[in-house]
Write a structure and sequence with these properties.
The chain is an alpha+beta fold. It is built from nine helices and eight strands.
């Protein structure tokens, strides 16, 4: 049918553009955030690309849902604003006839939402946590970033280097502050390097330089110069939280077999995302109505408001199930059923003729007055 082909083609083009735009925004904001963490020594510079990729995979289900909603709303709103809807209605196409092509277009996207929410996003979340754990287990000098004060090893060491060569494991213009009990030692050195000694222990060897040592609560201290000064770098075993230790990293099988409230709440959220996509894409059909002589902003503002309310209701139901205050069997469908009922009411309001619309004042005047 010409109507369905034309609508589907426009929906695909719009959804692709919206999705690419949203992904670009997410990548840009994530890049800024992670680069800031790397510059501050809170993330490894060698893992920036991986962290960005995993972060995008983690939010991809929500990006797909938003892309579906926005693209459907924009396409149908444009058709109303350009009086294209009037042409289709005059050809015998009703608002209900839009449901089938819109759902056919949305079906692959909704399938991707389900797959990413159930399988890919938890895996990406677990990988991000493992990368963070690896970075936390690095020795002190591996966390150093040029031009930044880095606090490491339980806040009892502070390093600053003007230049750090990660390949040669060499530093220059070094400041280090070490605290052992009440004794604080500050070291200033021109350069340094990392070397391994007998037993596999690793040291940061500095020199030449100067050392300042003082004890907390005492006014006096000591100052000394050195040609070589070695700081032992602590070796810490890498320990990872097992997959599934947190509900957000649980696999679909683990969530299915785990009956704890937190696991039930996470399962409710993941199952709710495809239902959220279905309801939103159907909601966009009657919500797209605009008066061609008026602006488009009113329905777009209302759409954003409805989306925020829907999102908050989902979050509320997840929190209530996760805390054990609401049964999973009720929470998993309650919010979506209420929204689906509202969508059905909007379809009745928008798609029926005025004299057949039970919600229209004209219908009540006809029934009560016996005429038009």
């Amino acid at each position: 049918m010409i109507f369905e082909r034309a609508l589907r083609k426009e929906l695909v083009a719009s959804a692709t553009g919206v999705f690419i735009t949203l992904v670009t925004i997410v990548i840009t904001t994530t890049l800024i955030r992670i680069l800031g963490q790397a510059a501050a020594g809170k993330a490894g510079a060698d893992a920036v690309v991986l962290l960005i990729g995993f972060a995008v995979l983690n939010v991809l289900p929500m990006l797909l849902v938003v892309s579906l909603f926005i693209s459907t709303l924009l396409v149908l709103t444009r058709m109303y604003a350009d009086s294209e809807m009037v042409v289709w209605f005059s050809c015998g196409v009703s608002l209900r006839n839009f449901i089938k092509p819109v759902l056919r277009f949305a079906a692959p996207w909704i399938a991707l939402v389900f797959l990413f929410a159930m399988f890919v996003a938890p895996w990406a979340n677990q990988q991000s946590r493992e990368i963070a754990a690896r970075f936390e287990q690095r020795d002190d000098i591996s966390k150093v970033a040029s031009g930044q004060f880095i606090e490491t090893a339980g806040s009892d060491r502070v390093f600053f280097v003007e230049d750090f060569d990660a390949v040669a494991r060499a530093v220059s213009q070094v400041f280090a502050a070490l605290r052992v009990g009440d004794v604080t030692t500050m070291i200033v050195a021109r350069d340094g390097h990392v070397e391994s000694r007998d037993g596999g222990e690793r040291y940061l060897v500095l020199g030449p330089g100067r050392r300042y040592e003082f004890e907390t609560g005492h006014a006096d201290g000591s100052i000394g110069e050195f040609d070589s000064y070695a700081i032992r770098l602590e070796s810490r075993a890498v320990q990872f939280a097992p997959a599934g230790s947190d509900a957000r990293t649980m696999t679909a099988d683990q969530l299915g077999s785990d009956t704890t409230p937190k696991a039930r709440g996470e399962l409710l959220w993941r199952l709710g995302l495809p239902l959220l996509a279905i309801n939103l894409v159907l909601l966009a059909i009657p919500l797209a109505f605009v008066n061609p002589r008026a602006g488009r902003s009113a329905n777009l503002i209302f759409a954003v408001l409805l989306y925020v309310i829907y999102w908050q209701l989902m979050s509320l139901s997840q929190a209530m199930v996760g805390s054990g205050r609401l049964h999973f069997g009720v929470g998993v469908w309650l919010v979506h059923a209420l929204v689906a009922g509202g969508v059905a009411a909007m379809f009745v309001r928008r798609s029926s003729a005025a004299r057949l619309d039970p919600l229209a004042p004209r219908t009540w005047r006809m029934w009560l007055g016996g005429g038009r």
